[in-house]
Amino acid sequence: MPGRRYNCSCGKKRYRDESSALAAADEDAAAYGESVTVYRCPGGLAWHLTTRGFTPEALRSTGRRLAYALLSSNEVDLDGFDPRRRRRALECAAQMSGLGLVLAADGVVRAVDRAGLARVVQVGLDAYAEEASGQATGSA
Ligand SMILES: [Zn+2]
Predict the structure, then answer these.
(1) Would you kindly state where each structural domain of the chain is located, as residue ranges?
(2) Helix (H) or strand (E) holding 110
(3) Bridge partner residues of 115 (DSSP)
(4) How far is the CA of 55 from the centre of ligand 1 (A)?
(5) Are the C-beta atoms of residues 68 and 124 closer than 8 Å to each other?
(6) What is the pTM of this model?
(7) What CATH class is the domain 56-136?
(8) Whole-angstrom Cα distance, residue 59 to residue 44?
(9) How far is the CA of 4 from the centre of ligand 1 (A)?
(10) Which one of 98, 111, 121, 140 has the lowest number of neighbouring Cβ atoms within 10 Å?
(11) Strand 75-77 with 102-105, pairing
């Protein structure tokens, strides 16, 4: 699959998985006294750290942007969403609705599961869907 790789062009340090990124984040937080967030690379499989939180521009996928917008304003009218991404945004809204993350009606999407949406911003919608289906088999 193109783009599914550990190398990326973010120019950020890459971690192989979430647990190693979290371990590095803990070290940084202890060393610099900053809160550090980990997230899945938008262009690959690696994980990165950020101390500044997320910006919509950095969240390249439409699913992540929509989740971010929902966390910011709780309700998003897809008519006002980036027109170049609107079709994809409708697909994402339908997928989010199926996952119980949002209520979608008449092109308006409302946040339901804010913790879940925060996870979508962190890992992407497809990875979230995989996690959600994996939870049924129980890997706590
Ligand atoms: Zn990256």
Answers:
(1) 1-53, 56-136
(2) strand 108-111
(3) none
(4) 14
(5) no
(6) 0.81
(7) mainly alpha
(8) 12
(9) 11
(10) 140
(11) unpaired
CA of 53 to the centre of ligand 1 (A): 15
Spatial separation of the C-alpha atoms in residues 117 and 6, rounded to whole Å: 24
| Cα 61 to ligand 1 centroid, rounded to whole Å | 13
Report how far ligand 1's centroid is from the alpha carbon of 42 (Å). Answer: 6
Under 8 Å CB-to-CB from 69, ≥6 apart: which residues? 56, 76, 81
Q: What is the pLDDT of residues 71-96, one digit of tens each?
A: 999 999 998 888 888 999 999 999 99
d(CA 33, CA 16): 24
Mean pLDDT to the nearest integer, 42-56: 83
Cα of 102 vs centre of ligand 1, distance in Å, is 27
The 3-class SS string of 46-71 reads CEEEECCCCCHHHCCCHHHHHHHHHH
| Poorest-pLDDT segment among 14-18, 25-29, 31-35 | 31-35
Give me ligand 1 centre to Cα 108, in Å. 31
Ligand 1 center–CA 77 separation, angstroms: 29
